[in-house]
Design brief:
single chain; about 550 residues; mainly alpha; about 80% helix; about 0% strand
Length: about 550
């Protein structure tokens, strides 16, 4: 795939993903208005973490990272019949595995509650609600994993639009559940769980016609002995950990947040959702497009094209990541107030969510770079190297969480008072301190940087990436533009310090002016310094 086609494919994927993110934003606004931030929403978000974790593994992580390089190899070195046979047998094997996993989770839901959300006391209303919603939502993992298999095949044939657009169906189903089904169920948050179930079926069915046009609609066949299936499984086992370090960290933080003050899981959710705009629109798009490209360059033994593709990905990630990092940090509270602070979502909810958004946004460039760094290894069918980095990153997150909580409790007056009132109990003391959830977001940010820096060092050590000319000038251009944008946005923040008292349209107007001015200045300065759209097409 040429640099021009790389950029065009990324643009197509990003534009479709933009529709998904906008509909997702509307969905989250509906959540905030209808349900607010409360213990019941904490339970739903915690329950949905598990099938959503499976989605991330399959759609953006382990499965696609293992399957796409093998599929590219079959396309390059074998005929269409061999590709069809591989698809049939991978589908049958994946379906069988998913059915077993789904059955186990449904039966083991009470035990999983103690693992995923240990802060939900056994026998409590939250504990019972978690079990019920986990059993409703988890079948989504089966449907969405199959949908991700279909999407991976379509992406390998440069059909990026349909897989990128399918998440819109999840958002529409959840909006319908909140506005239509919830009133029929007495306002119960369980309506959202049924929305998740329906969304999985819709997303799978939506992509099947596009697959049929390629002549690859599968006839599932269980075959663990097939050479391609065995190779995918061999590649996939290490990537179960290596490609999803952020998701493991989120699961760990969900466990920790279940001990905190009610609403903490929801506050973390809303900050994570806003972070998904740059990561989902651009990071996932770049990673999804670059994986087939790097896999094909590796299969065709084209090291020069492989290295240039990586260089293109790194530059694009920094061009997006640096301004996104500065903008989200400075605009955290205005964004939360403008987008979510209505009816059930209070001023305090907006403030608490902005704290965790600020903390986690410090690692936006790192999160984006990992979307290119991880495929750099997986495209070469090297699934072990990223695991080394992932282990360290997960341990870093856990140690930072413990260290930051210890610092809060023992090194601050608020923490010392809470610890004394709780009789020395960490869990009871943390449950009495609003804002402790922001430390969980900061721990994820630190772990994100550790993961990215390790992968970059290991990639350089492997000797497969050669830096292209012009990096010094490129970094200076980005630095000037980002600094100027930061100063302009900071000036607006000083001019408009309090966003809580305005009406929705006043907040929206000011946010549009602030973000628009900063974005226009950033793009204008890049242009004045010589960066043109053609420069983003690759080498």
């Amino acid at each position: 795939m040429s640099g021009n086609r790389l950029l065009r494919s990324t643009a197509i994927f990003s534009s479709m993903t933009f529709l998904s993110r906008v509909s997702g934003l509307v969905r989250d606004q509906v959540y905030a208005i209808v349900f607010g931030a409360n213990p019941a929403m904490d339970v739903f978000i915690a329950a949905f973490r598990i099938p959503n974790f499976m989605r991330r593994l399959s759609a953006e992580g382990s499965f696609s990272m293992a399957f796409v390089p093998v599929l590219a190899e079959y396309k390059e070195r074998h005929g269409q019949d061999a590709v069809k046979d591989l698809v049939d047998r991978v589908t049958g094997t994946l379906l069988a595995a998913l059915l077993v996993v789904t059955a186990v989770v449904l039966l083991a839901a009470p035990w999983l509650t103690r693992v995923i959300a240990p802060g939900f006391e056994v026998g409590s209303e939250k504990h019972a609600l978690f079990i019920e919603m986990l059993r409703i939502t988890f079948p989504y993992a089966l449907f969405i994993s199959l949908a991700s298999l279909v999407g991976s095949i379509l992406n390998s044939y440069q059909r990026f639009a349909v897989p990128a657009l399918s998440p819109v169906l999840l958002n529409l189903a959840m909006i319908a559940a909140a506005l239509g089904l919830a009133p029929l169920m007495g306002g119960s948050v369980k309506a959202l769980a049924w929305g998740v179930f329906a969304a999985g079926i819709l997303q799978l069915c939506f992509q099947l016609p596009a697959l049929a046009k390629l002549g690859l609609l599968p006839r599932p066949r269980l075959d663990f002995a097939h050479a391609g299936v065995r190779k995918i499984l061999t590649l996939m086992v290490p990537t179960l950990f290596g490609s999803s370090v952020v998701q493991f960290n989120l699961l760990f933080n969900t466990m920790a947040a279940s001990y905190l003050i009610g609403g903490s899981i929801t506050w973390l959710y809303y900050s994570d959702r806003l972070l998904e705009f740059p990561l989902g629109m651009f990071g996932v798009a770049i990673g999804t497009v670059i994986l087939p490209h790097l896999s094909s360059r590796h299969a065709a033994t084209d090291p020069d094209g492989y290295s240039k593709g990586l260089d293109w990905g790194f530059r694009l990630c920094l061009m997006i990541g640096l301004p996104a990092c500065a903008g989200l940090i400075l605009c955290a509270e205005p964004l939360m107030s403008t987008l979510f602070q209505y009816r059930s979502f209070t001023v305090e909810d907006a403030r608490m969510s902005s704290w965790s958004l600020i903390a986690q946004s410090t690692a936006v460039p790192a999160f984006l770079l990992v979307k290119v760094l991880a495929p750099a290894f997986y495209s070469r069918q090297d699934t072990r190297t990223p695991v080394k980095a992932a282990v360290v990153a997960v341990l870093t997150n856990a140690l930072c969480t413990i260290g930051l909580f210890a610092g809060l409790l023992y090194a601050t007056p608020t923490g010392q008072a809470a610890l004394q009132a709780a009789g020395g109990s960490w869990t009871q003391a943390l449950a009495a301190i609003p804002g402790a959830h922001a430390l969980l977001a900061l721990a994820i940010a630190i772990a994100g940087w550790v993961n990215a820096l390790q992968l970059a060092w290991l990639l350089r050590k492997a000797g497969v990436y050669r830096r292209q000319p012009g990096w010094g000038r490129f970094l200076r251009q980005l630095g000037v533009a980002t600094l100027a944008m930061t100063l302009v946005v900071l000036a607006f923040r000083l001019l408009w310090p309090d966003w809580s008292a305005w009406t929705w349209w006043e907040r929206g107007m000011r946010l549009a002016v602030m973000v628009g001015a900063g974005g226009a200045l950033y793009a204008g300065l890049l242009y004045l310094q010589g960066i043109r759209p053609r420069d983003l097409r690759g080498h």
